[in-house]
Structure formats: structure tokens, C-alpha cells
Amino acid sequence: MVVDIVVGVLSFFGTVFVFLAAVGMVRMPDTYLRISVTTKAATLGIGLLLIAGAIYSYDLAITAKVMAIILFILLTAPVSAHLIGRTSYFAGVKLWKDSIMDDLDGKYDKNTQELSSGEEDEKDIKGSKKDKAVD
Predict the structure, then answer these.
(1) In sequence order, which residues have a C-beta less than 8 Å from that of residue 90 and are 6 or more positions away?
(2) Locations of Basic and acidic residues compositional bias (predicted)?
(3) Distance (Å, rounded) from C-alpha 79 to C-alpha 72?
């Protein structure tokens, strides 16, 4: 009885998060927001559904497989979302028109395809000050 309630609650919340991911995929205005919403909500929703399945099965082998799948999703989903977002930015996919700031603006050279962190300028400034002090 208690197990059925726990499985039902986990399944319900897992379904809600997967549904929110689907809605976010349709409603978000640009690629970057879609990636963000989908990755977080779908990862949590799928994890909850898998845990519900493991509890329902009450089998150690299935539980071990579920834990391995959850670990795999937790490791790969953020990395793949980051790579999709980075590739989209470098390919020239525009931000939403109402986006407040672009953190990578001016840090990516399209000719060399190099991304700078912005610290290179500070090092150059410090290096030039040291050069002047030596002179």
C-alpha cells in the first residue's frame, strides 16, 4: 500500500516534469532557453520515473540498472546541452531579441574559431606594465 503511493507520487511528479520539458520546448523563444529548460526538467522527470519503476519492480538487478541509467543521464545531459548550445552559438544562432546580455560577445573569433576568456587582456596589461617598469 505505501509502496504503491510512493510509486504513484514519483510517477506523477516525473510525468509533470517531462510534460514541463515538452511545454518548454514548444514555448521558449530561442534555442538556448529551450536547451536549458528541456535539459533540467527532462533529466529530473526521467530520473523520477526510473526511480518509481525501480521501487515498483522491487528487484535488485533492475534497481542497479536504473541507478546506472540515472548516473549516465546525470553525466551526459548537461555536457550534451552545453555542447549543443556552444555549437549553436558558434554557428551563428541568434539570441532572443529580448535577451539582456551575451556573455560570449567579443570573446569568440570567427576566423580562428578560438574562444577567449577575457583574462588574456588583463595579462597583456599586467605584462606591459612590467615591461615599462623594467625600461
Answers:
(1) 108, 110, 113
(2) 123-135
(3) 11
At 24, list the grid cell. Answer: 518548454
45 with 12: CB under 8 angstroms?
A: no
The contacts of residue 56 (CB under 8 Å, 6+ apart) are 3, 7
The residue ranges of every structural domain in the chain are: 1-97, 103-134
What does the pLDDT read at residue 66?
A: 95
- Phi, psi at residue 110, to the nearest 5°? -70, -25
Say what the pTM is.
0.74
DSSP 2-36: HHHHHHHHHHHHHHHHHHHHHHHHHH-SSHHHHHH
Q: How confident is the model at residue 68 (pLDDT cuts 50, 70, 90)?
A: very high
